[in-house]
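Protein folds are increasingly written down as discrete tokens. With that in mind, we are printing a sequence and the tokens encoding its fold.
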Amino acid sequence: MRGGVSMSRQSAIPCILMRGGTSKGPYFVTGDLPPDPAARDRVLLAAMGSPDARQIDGLGGADPLTSKVAMVNRSAREGIDVDYLFAQVSVADAVVDTSPSCGNVLAGVGPFAIERGMVPVTGEETLVTIYNTNTDSRIEAVVRTDGRGVVYDGDTAIDGVPGTAAPVRLNFMDIVGSKTGRLLPTGRLTETIEGVEVTLIDVAVPMMIFRAQDLGKTGHESPAELDADRDFFALMEAMRRIAGERMGLGDVAGRVIPKVAMLAAPRGQGHVAARYFVPHKTHGAFAVTGALCVSSCAMLAGSVSDGLARRPEGDDRLILIEHPAGLIDVALKTRGGGANMEIVSGGVIRTARKLMQGEVFVPGHLLDGGGA
């Protein structure tokens, strides 16, 4: 006993630990967690081992990409199979942020829903219609299945993940204005923050996007090189807070949106090169929601992507983004151009794998309504 709280009893919560895309974390049935958000967040912090830089006392992997949680339940919405709530659990701080979504973790939601019996198998492919409560948007997940359930083995490779697995196709609907209600929250294609030209855009996730060269970077640095430049991050954070205010998100200190990306001309087969920030660390690969937003910006004439991005012709395009681990591809459907460009839909191919199924244990008093 320490601090006046008995730690002698542990409570078990069922979960499946899954890799979704280039991220990893526990997936829970929403009803297995406390309904009160504050109590739920205390449970998630305990389950992940936060706050602690090593997350030694929980499931977290001491990295933002492996400190993520999915909460899934059957949906009462017409035409929707399951509701999905994502939580980014801070590694070093006692913060659980449900304001953003995560498209990589989303890749595991369809398989998880099938595993938990929320959606029946329909053949060699099973369509799972997901409502993302973080962003009030719909996503179709096409999952490889057979008579025994989810098929995880396959020959699809995604950069940032070793080996191959079965593909999970994600088709994103209603992605424009995920938090702000508009493609361009300020109505401008570009504007200046702290002397740097930026595009403030909201497709799947609100973002501040700038040219790497404008902050003295090439845009092809490794995550370690960028993370070591704390002055760079300090300036970027100051800009991000101003961007949040301008986008109508209020004071974004301590929150993970808007996210940030910097662009550069591609060096390989990509249409644009980018580095994505989460936001206080460089992503080792690329977020799916971030890829939808960055690809939209790359195709948006008059944005900060002018002179950097190669723009394929037509309204139905496959956009390749170069990132630290390779490439991520986005199938983007648009109408029109410039400030009037409409984003119809975006699709990506990800993979997922079930890593462990069982129970995670947390201090019992957290489920009994007690505090931390």
Q: What stands out?
A: The chain is about 15% helix and 35% strand. The chain has two domains: 10-174+352-366, 191-338. The domain at 191-338 is CATH 3.10.310.10 (Diaminopimelate Epimerase; Chain A, domain 1).
